[in-house]
Every structure is written in C-alpha cells, then in structure tokens.
Amino acid sequence: MPMNTNRELLEKQSSAVTLSDMEIFIFPELLFSLVLANIMSPRIWEWRKDKWFDKLDRMTPYRRILRLKQFIIDHYEFNLDLETWGLTSQQREVARFKEWIDEKTLSESNALFGYEGDRYYFDMDIRKHFGLDQYTSDTIPYWKTETVEAMDAFRFKPGYSGGAGECVSLAALYAAALFIICKVPLEDIFLMATPLHSQNFVDVKDGIITNNRRIVTKPMWFNGTELTAKAQRALRNEQVTIVTHVSGHIHVMYPEATIDTAAMDRFTNKLSSFLTTTVDMDILTSFLRFNRELQECFQVEHVCHGKPRYIPLNTAFLYEDSSAFRMDSQTRDKLLADIDEYKFFSAPIEGRISLNKFEDFFRKNKVDASRPDDVMKLVQSFNCEHSRAYEIMEALMQFIHVEPRLPGREKTYVTRDPLEIDPEMSREQIEEYLLSVRGTHPVAGLAFHALRDVARAGWEPFMKAAIERNPVAVSGAAEKSDEEVIRLLDEFDGESIYDGSRLAQPDEVWNFRRGDGIEKAVCLADILKNRHPEQAVQIRCGNGRAELTCGTVCAAWDTAKGLSVELSI
Asked: Which of 288, 330, 515, 557 could form an SS bridge with 519, CB 3.0 to 4.6 Å?
C-alpha cells in the first residue's frame, strides 16, 4: 500500500507530542527531538542558578558530570508504573503502525509485543514483572517519555517528593543537562535504546554511560558489584535497536540511516574500548565479586598477630557491605583487619586456591584480554580442585569484554545538514536557530511538537494526540457525570506545568491536578469526545477565556496562555 506522506507526517508530529516508548521505536527521530525540546525549555537552564553548580566552570568535564549526577539523583526518582499514563492494546497499536512495521518484527524487537529479552536477563514472566498479568494478554501500557516539565510535575502527585520519569525520560534529561550544565558538546553524546532500556554513552575521558539516574564509568563497569551488574544488563543481553545523535540515527529495523558515519565509527570504537579491559589483580577480584558461584574455589590469606590465617573468599566479600573498605588491592588489608579473628582458619582451607598467589603472577605477567593464550595462562594457574578451570576462563572472558549488539552498518545513509548548536550559545540563540531550520531539518521541526508549543507547531497534531492517546483522564472520569467532571476541573489548580504558549496534554492535567483554562478545556474535550463520540466538541479561546461546548454541555475557564483559536472536534 503506498504511504500517504501527509498522514505519516501528522502521525509523526502527533507522536512527538505523546512520546510513548512505542512511538519512539517506530519513529526514532523523536528521541533526539525530545532532547532538543528539553534544551529549548527554560527549566534546565534554571539549574545553573542553583548553588550546587557554583564554580562549575573551574571543574574538569568529568567532575562537572559527577556534580550533575548527584543533582539528578537528589531531584528525580525512577518511575515505571502502569497508572501514570494508562493502558492501550496490542491490537490497536499494531493497526496504527501497520504501514511501518509488521507484527512479527515488532514482537522480536519490542518489550510490549512479546519480546522477553535474553533468557539470562529475565528469569520471570515479563508481563508479571511489569504488573500486566492482571490484564488480558492484549493489554499493554502507554509508557510515555516525559518532558522535563512533566518529570518535575510528579512532585504534585501523592507519594512523590520530587520529580520522576522512566528510563527514556532520564536519558533525554541527562543528554540535555550534560549539554546545558556541563557544556558537553552534543557531538559527544550518543543515546542508545534497547527493547527494555534506554541509556547514553558520553565520550568524555574513558567514556561514561548514563543509566537511569546514575552514571557508570569504566572502572565502575568492571567493579563487579550488584548495582553495576544491573546497569550492564541491557548491553550484555539485548540488541541495541536505536542509536541516535545530533547528526542523526541508525535503527536496527530500517534500511536507511541518517547518523554521520564518522560519528558512528567513533561511537563504536569508544564504546568497544569502554566495554573491554585488561586483567590485573583488581579486575580478577572484581570478576570473583561478580561471579559468586566461583568464590567457593578461593580463599584469602591474611596475617593476624604475626601468624598466617585463611578465610573463604565468599566470607570476606560479605564484609564489604558493612565496611568502607573493599577487597581491592589498596584496601584489602584494612577490610580483613576489621574481621574478627575467629572467622579465620589457622591452616589453608583444603580445596580452595589462595587469591594472594595471583599478586605474584601479575607482577610477572601482563594479561592482554584480546590474547586467549594470555588468559589461558592465567586460568591454568588456578589449579582449581573443582575442575572448573575452563568454566572460569569462559566467565572471565565474558566479564572483561562485552560485545554490544549494535544495529548493522549495512544501511543506505541519508546525509543531512548538521545541527550547529554549541554549548556556548544561549537558550534563546538555540531556539532561534532551531526555528530557522525546522522547515528543512525533520528533527528540529519535531522538537517544537515535543516542546508542546502549539503557537509555533500548530494545533492539529496536538489535538490528535490529546483525543486519541490520553486514556487516564477518560478512565479517571468514567464514574462521574459530565457536570461532576467540570466541577472537578474547576477545583484543579489553574497554573500550567508549562511556560508561555506551551500546553499540557489531558493526562498531564489529570495526573498533576492542574492546568491553565485552555488545558482544562482540552482535557474535558478528551473525556467528552471519548464518552460521546457522535457529538461535536467546540473550543474557543481568546481574550483570556477558554470556552467549550458539546451538545448541552458548556464550560469556561480563565486562560493566561495568550492563545487565540477556534477548534472543532
């Protein structure tokens, strides 16, 4: 079936408004459009005035990022519940996107359509994991990627003390904040999406991966802790479906790519280097921390009151949880000194290898992870009585190198003019520049829809998204009469979560119990149109007043948005 270009554009523009995970998977340009929307928003620029970022210009880029990380941890939570943005169905979404993707491809690539990740990633039913087991198999969540304003607005929801967002929201927030606060060029930020996660690779120092609220440095990636193991899950076990960058994107499913090939080469090489390490005493210790089942093969020797004593390695690792010290070479002796002597054995423990002997091995040998002979030499020195030498070698090779499954490079590359945005530009300069190129650069154009700026992006995509993809307000009002809904909207705070001519979608108004008069009118329109689909809804906005009529139903609220429009739905 030939594709209707105008319909595709409207679908894409309206998807930039709702920004569901599903929509971003189908239209990968949307992810960077949200980054640009967050950059144009005044919200993150206000962070610069916070005392936490005083003297930031005197810090190295890496120290700036650490400062930003703590700010995000302090101000945002991770949220991925089913209630916030409501539910839809596989049948409805498949029908909506059938011109772009078939159901089989979808089920192999997207967590909401049957994909369950690598069997090592999930040991539970994914629908049960997400709380979907209480619904029919056709039901899926409308997980939406939040703008920074919507993330901040979570503070108005019961149970939240600050902002919140899901993984894609946090990745987009980090990308914008790295640019605005830390002045990291957009050229050095790569956003990666897998079927179950979204994170960024930042080309600073040895590389940094953002993971939800936290960051992972290369030393952290190889520290063997449970927290790092969780951060590694996506890259260790999943296909990367999208890589997006200021120069463009590449998608596992589509034959065309727009990302600059030199930028993609740099990303591939830097990420590969980040995910690979040489083996030394500390890496070996981290490897054993990570692989608990192998700890039974080892013991640690420690001198207590001038006499050698021996402790099982798995016992020694347990004490890291309650100590400021670790089993790494620099603080191991201090950790062991804090353990009561009765926990030690007076003679070597039969059947366990002494970890200490490897210190001498590493003084005499350099182990290159890319040379199997080097690794084999190390493993053969284990002399494991459990006959697990080859198992140890295989696990060690997997630990010291991760081969990410990136989208294949055999694509048709479409060249675009680069977005010329510099960290030294002001917010106003960036906004003016994006306005000047939005007609020729698709991502810049979509950014104004993600920004929710109806004055500059137009009403049709915004209203299409509002009526078709805001189920929370509709279900929340289901037990109320039309008049009761209007009275409830009257009680909502009259302040918008967005500045200027930017508007909240109905479910944002409903979730956060606030909205400008025109936002309340659109929210009511969503409810009434879904409740009375045969009736026309009229909205008139101007002179500080927003009015809605639908049959015999009439409602009006004050508006400070300065918009003048007549809408017929």
From this structure: 515
